[in-house]
Amino acid sequence: MAERQTQLTPDGHQFSRDDQGIAAFQDLVLARYRASARKFPWRETTDPYAILVSEIMLQQTQVGRVAEKFPAFLSAFPNFATLATAPLADVLAAWQGMGYNRRAIALQKCARLVMEEYGGRLPDNPEVLATFPGIGKATAASICAYAFNRPVVFIETNIRRVFIHHFFNDGATVSDDEIRPLVEAALYHADPREWYNALMDYGTDLAKSVPNPNRRSRHYAKQSAFEGSDRQVRGAILKLLVAKGTLTRAALLREMNEDNNRVGAILAALEAEGFIRTTKKGITLAS
């Protein structure tokens, strides 16, 4: 085990994995955050509903775009009750520009679940939240940290980047199973919310200043191109239906100006997933 260096610089500094090294790492992360914490609207609230919305938005969308869309979405749907009862067309209209529209459907399903089975209150148990639509273990834990200040342990892209950078600078491929004990040992129990905000900010800084440490993660996968993808076509279909309402299949195919077989397959997938439905009048958004 390498000895801990005394100079606490972010670039390439390696901490030992003993108590002394963990404490020094924790001091560095918190000191950086307290000196220059980023401001985002979801950091100004502990409302579980708002935190749920922000976490699902942040799953696969850049922070800047979420910062732009988050206040407008909350203005349109300020709580679980309003989102649960809203027409899907309204939800998708508010979601436009965020991408991955299935997250909007999952978010509304979560709202309905909260209203119907949990008396309008979001559970603070990560194991329960992980069973909700569109919420995996990491998102469930992050919601509990930010909404309820629970001392939970989770790993996501920025957290992974920070720990690989400071504890695994030997060139080897790293698994989350190796990182998790360090995340647990370093957790700042006095304020988990502050700790995870600090890690997120630091991970964002590292992404801009050093070669991506996550390339050495066994879980690293480069995101596929959006332009020309089925995902782009899916989004275009939903945007069209939000704007036009109901369209006959022939009219929709003309509007799309894509290969009809490709669009047909995507339409079938969207209907199977609950985004759209076919009626006697044509194709429309599901209610």
Brief sketch in words of this structure:
The protein has 287 residues and is an all-alpha fold. 57% of the residues lie in helices and 2% in strands.
**Helicity level:** 55-70%
N/C terminus separation: 59 Å
Tally of strands: 2
Largest sheet: 2 strands, antiparallel
What does this structure look like?
- This protein is mainly alpha-helical and 287 residues long.
- The protein has 14 helices and two strands; from the N terminus they run H-H-H-H-H-H-H-H-H-H-H-H-H-H-E-E.
- The protein has helices spanning 19-36, 48-58, 63-76, 80-85, 88-95, 102-117, 126-129, 137-148, 157-167, 176-186, 192-209, 230-244, 249-256, 260-272, and strands at 276-278, 283-285.
- The protein has a two-stranded antiparallel sheet.
- Strand 1 (276-278) and strand 2 (283-285) form a beta hairpin.
- Helix 2 (48-58) packs antiparallel against helix 8 (137-148).
- The radius of gyration is 22 Å and the shape is globular.
- The relative contact order is 0.11.
